[in-house]
Specification:
- The structure is a homodimer.
- Chain A is of the alpha/beta class.
- Chain A contains 13 helices and twelve strands.
- In chain A, the strands form two sheets. In chain A, strands 1, 2, 3, 4, 5 and 11 form a six-stranded mixed sheet that branches. The first copy, chain A, has a six-stranded mixed sheet with strand order 8-7-9-6-10-12, covered by helices on one side.
- In chain A, helix 2 runs antiparallel to helix 11, helix 9 packs across helix 11 and helix 12 runs antiparallel to helix 13.
- Chain A is globular, with a radius of gyration of 21 Å.
Chain lengths: 361, 361
Amino acid sequence: MDRRKFLKNAGLASGTAAATVIGAPAIAEAKTRWIAVSAFGKAGLLGQALSDFARFVGTASGGKLTIKVFHAGELVKPLEAMDAVLQGTAQMGYGAPYYWAGKSSAISFVAAMPYGLNAQEQNAWLYYGGGIEQADKIYNSLGLKFLPLGNTGNQMGGWYRKQINSVADLKGLKFRMPGLGGEILKTFGVNVVLLPGKDVLSSLTTGAIDGTEWIGPAADLGKGLFRVCNNYYYPGWHEPATVLDAFFDKKAYEALSPELRDIVVRGAAATNLFVLSKFQAANNTAMQKLIKEHKVSVRKYSDELLSAIGSRAAEVLPELAAKSPEGREIYEHITNFRRTMIDWSGYSEQAFLENRGKAKL
Amino acid sequence: MDRRKFLKNAGLASGTAAATVIGAPAIAEAKTRWIAVSAFGKAGLLGQALSDFARFVGTASGGKLTIKVFHAGELVKPLEAMDAVLQGTAQMGYGAPYYWAGKSSAISFVAAMPYGLNAQEQNAWLYYGGGIEQADKIYNSLGLKFLPLGNTGNQMGGWYRKQINSVADLKGLKFRMPGLGGEILKTFGVNVVLLPGKDVLSSLTTGAIDGTEWIGPAADLGKGLFRVCNNYYYPGWHEPATVLDAFFDKKAYEALSPELRDIVVRGAAATNLFVLSKFQAANNTAMQKLIKEHKVSVRKYSDELLSAIGSRAAEVLPELAAKSPEGREIYEHITNFRRTMIDWSGYSEQAFLENRGKAKL
């Protein structure tokens, strides 16, 4: 990559970029400069969120820690972001944990678990249920430090050219679904395809795939998936909520002063909430547009399908987790937390949402 | 108040505490010192959250902005926190918006609206739906600036000495419920009582009240309400989620540099997420304890009651909003946002929660 080489030569992208530079004695402030690489494009909600996070860290720290952001393709390819940090080209990366499944079979559990936790529960798990510590067992083993930096909230089930009503309809289907959900669908004879985001629409158009999951209405509308698929299914059983991950070179992170680390941690938590809130605020408007302007048919997965996939999830997920000790540990940790939350969410969120419509406000 | 006088004499609590102090010329950094007063006790989750927020602001700003926190009763009484800021004794206050209903008939809508938004939707509204701006129309008119600084999430419906099955059971009931929910219950002949938190348990014990709503399992367990009431109802139709409010002397807030304001805004957003996450993480464990150790009967409000109260809410809330132009505006703003969210949450959170149990993980 030319740009990488250029930066390397310019001394910007080397491992020593994280080293401190001592300023003039009168000020005597150490300045740390980081490079961040992202799996997401500059213009989208997540690209904006990363830029905004980096800007905050720079200003809040009074320039003591500056993060120069390279969005997807600007320095390395989207899915090379973790490699760039591992190789010392960058000190921070941004993506979704299941993008790095090649590095760890356990890491996808950090992103989302089919039939698992919704966003509110996921944040409770991460910040006060030991979730960040669990994730860090995986990230630390790679030489990284993990922090949540956004959440998509509950995703939509996906786009299908044809209606999907029963288990029989799954057999032979060519469907794009990364992560743990795809592993479950495989067991029903689905031909699960992994494709970079930029190839999804063209693959649907040519018929190379019969359908795809993407994110939710706001992101899906922008991607134009309604142009080739009319059937838009819910609920997103495969990604009840998806964590976006910031990962840092562990040594660079630990070299930060407690004050700078505090700014990074709080800034990341604020971004986490902002991203989720922005997705939610945009989703319904987008959904209405999809339905009214683009005549999309919004369909609920049948009970038969949700039950069959749910039963299969309970068999497949422990098998996937058992591929490594870290996988077994994080799966048990999440499912324990899920059991402690499932009753409470039934008394609270679920019961409230089911009854709210009784007031016509 | 002795302590207030002492601080005033010491020059700590005067309006000029927000003025800047120029340090040694070699550093030439302006230092701003604020006092914060809180409606919440020091030891609880919210007291800890405020202390933590203040600590973060101090360290992240390198001491350029320090906030000295006085918890409930330490400088002023809990419900005097807003007065203390309005009088210039403090530059920041912390509480729940409906605590300040005496200052504005519209302000309770910022806290929670019966049958309104859940926490995820409320944050979407606040940060990306124009909610902070709407709230600020009310707070600004008082000379204040508003920021959300925590959320309880969905609350429980409340504690009752006797079972409540029908509308007839409400008549003559002496029940503690502040905010808009209490106004709705009044129209059913409920004798709605407002009591400071510290008097709730004793009033239940003496029979001065027949029941009370409080927060949710984690907070309610600590308060010991199960000792006098056995019937614990859900869902919390009256407070689907409740915003905790930080309010600042507007002039003091606007005098901050953009960098310091950024630290305050991000720090507040992080605390907002931390508080919600902490409540959620603690609620189910507390619920299990209430059920298993304290033999509490958890009951769902009947459909008859939820429908009757919901219909009444649709009559009473617009009337309450119509007491002021700001009330009318914020009510319309929230209900518009609610309409744009209610479908999406049905496709996403609600459908997911209803089907998650199909996987026995």
